Amino acid sequence: MRPPSSPVDPGFDVVVLGAGLNSLNLTIAFHRQYGMRCTTVMRVPVAMNQHTVTSDQLVLGADATDEQMRDALLELAAARPAGRPALLLTNADSLIEFIDRFRGELEEHYLLAQVDGALLSRLADKAEFAEICDGLGIGTVPTVIVDFARAEEAGWNGEQELPWTFPVVGKAANTAEYHHVDFPGKRKVFFLESREEHLDLVRRLRAAGFTGRFLFQELIPGDDTAQRSITAYRSARGKVTLLCAAQVLLGEHTPEALGRPAAMVTGDFPSLTAAAERFLDAVDYVGFANFDVKIDPRTGAECFFEINPRIGRNNYYVTAAGESVARHVVADRIHDRDLGRVVVTREILYSILPVALVLRYLRDPALRGHIRRVARTGLRNPFRYRPEGLWMRAYSVVSGLNFVRKYRAVYPRPTDTGF
Hints:
This protein has 419 residues and is of the alpha/beta class.
């Protein structure tokens, strides 16, 4: 049985939209910093949210419309004492868009910490992101942009030869647009090994009615350990107060989750955090942000892939390294002030995977030895957050075993490309 709600009252409420690890890592941060229990609003219940000590659930049902979710949020607000502030947060792209869609109504009752719709649209498009980076002197990946809305026009470049040797990478410029398209073999990221596979993907996208922009990119070599993650917060008054970067050690490899980090080690990455801060200031960003980067092993160049206009699924790596992400948004939105700039450099190993599995995929002996040393005292798993009950600890074991089976099936050994 789950422990009763925490008696600690910080003087404000926090409502988090969405289920799974996306929301759990956020509610852990607030519980750890303020001893409070958030309210998690979701359509479909997820066991990890049902059993956590860090939040209470409001389940709307799988068929709940956006309007019904809006109404549920307004009803929650009406039940609060007059004048009591509440934060409304989410960590999912579709729900970021939901909040923006109903911003006018929600802002009357909740404090929001995210960019407006115009900037959201720009940043959600990986092609737009690359153009901004180019203007700031931030390295990006060589890319060919194919606009499927122009597929019937003369001179359309969808079937033209790409300027690099295969393999190449393919991905949608806007994941929200791509979310609504279905076709056989659909993936979040495609690893195309030949001209035939390239043309076949173009044909399938056209047949599915896709009308967005699709990116074909030069494959930057390097396995998962060449990837980096940056988490940041920039306040409504224009100050970056939080920066934390980590080296990815192993990502998920199932088709629906390809690219999600599952094990990372934090540390000091000054050039990455400086570039992220420069980008956020240039676009006048507000709220949490998460950058995906890859280091080209041929040149050492930092290639920024995209910005997620949210804190990122695995944000517990920041809190576990000693800096609560919660206190930055609370200071900004609840107390209307900025914290001093914090750059997190403490080393910890964030992992939702068994350490033995992570070590198996590290081919660099020096890195493997380093991770062994960090793991002895710095291993952090959100499912093993100390106040949680026995169910969550058991879940961490079962989840770890399931990951072992998944990797054996879809990524049995590390490769030079991570695919």
